[in-house]
Structures are given as C-alpha cells and as structure tokens.
Amino acid sequence: MHIHIEGSENIDSLPYLDPILNKDEKALINEMIEEEMNRFIPSDYLSQIAPTPNFDYNKYQFLEEEMKRLKEGRKQIDFDNSRYQLKVPTIENENNWKDSLENAKSQYEYQEIQKLNLDLLLKYGGNQWKLYLSDLEMIQKNLKLQLKEIQDQIEQINLQRKLEQESSKSRIEQNNRKWFELVHKNKEIELACHQLELEIESIQSQ
Predict the structure, then answer these.
(1) What does the pLDDT look like over 123-134, one tens digit per residue?
(2) Which Pfam families does the entry link to (predicted)?
(3) 193 lies in a domain?
(4) Axis crossing angle, helix 169-205 with helix 126-167, rounded to the nearest 10
C-alpha cells in the first residue's frame, strides 16, 4: 500500500551536485527543521491505512476469558498433563481401576501411533526432507534473483539521476551566478534609491 506524504513531490535535492555542508550549515538546518516541526500540524498518515477488522471477543468465550485474565494480571493456568500419567488406582475403588485401565489403553495406543510415525519417518522422512530443502533452495534462489533485480534497478536509477544532474551542472551554475548577480544589482539599486530618497528629503527640508 502506497502512503502519500504531502509535499514529498516538491523535494528538489541534488545530491550529486550539492556541496558538502559544514558544521554551521548543518546546525542552522537542524534549527530550522526543529522550528518547522514545532509550528506545523502533522498530517494524519494513519487515515490512509485500512482500518483493522472489527473483532468481537464476546463471541468466543475462551478468548474473552483469556483477555479478562490478562487484564486482571492473573497467572496462566498450567497445562493439565494428568491424563498422560499412569497412576496406580486404589484397591477399594472399582471406578478408579476402570478409569486407570482406560487411560492405560489410551497411552498404549498413543505410544503405538508414535512408534508408527517414527517408522514412517525412518522410511520416508529422509526423502521428504530432501524435497523440502530442495524447495527451500529454489525459493531462496528466486528471492535472490528478485533482490538482484531490485538492486540493479536502484543502481540504474541512481546512475540516471547522477547523469541528469551532472549534465545540468553548467546550466545550474550559470543560473546560480545570474541569480547572485541580480540579487547584488537589486541591492545596489535599493541602496541608490535610498540615497536618492535621503537627498530628496534633504532638498525638501531646505
């Protein structure tokens, strides 16, 4: 998404022609920037960004409870791993024996599935990882090519800017000298007019 910054189209910097600033010039520029920042009203750039989607936490109880816990600063409840433990049931309670037996069966099935997954990993995992790494290498190669293209474009743009600015150097310097000459001439005319005004006032007062 492109964000337009007001006034950015009026930047007239000539980095390949402008002379290097000295300490005093940098200090003056920073002072002028600070003064401008204290005076101007910043634009609302965030208004150009699409608003975030309206999400209602109340529709999801677990999210609502979790947000409430975070607001109250309560500690997160530890994960309940009791069902993964094979506790010895009490002799007197038949229900405990039944629950423990069912839990033991579940644990056995879980271990069998883990064993099956490990067997499959040993049999096919190596090739799958090779394919996965090959895909990653291809993605990396494509990203490097894209990066190289962008860097070449940036270099080409900078080279074009440099050539355009250097080709205009003599014309800019000529206009710059002409501007200073005109300013100096205007000052001389202004001073001459002021002297004439003083002479006229002196004559009129006699």
Answers:
(1) 888 888 899 999
(2) BCAS2 (PF05700)
(3) yes
(4) 40
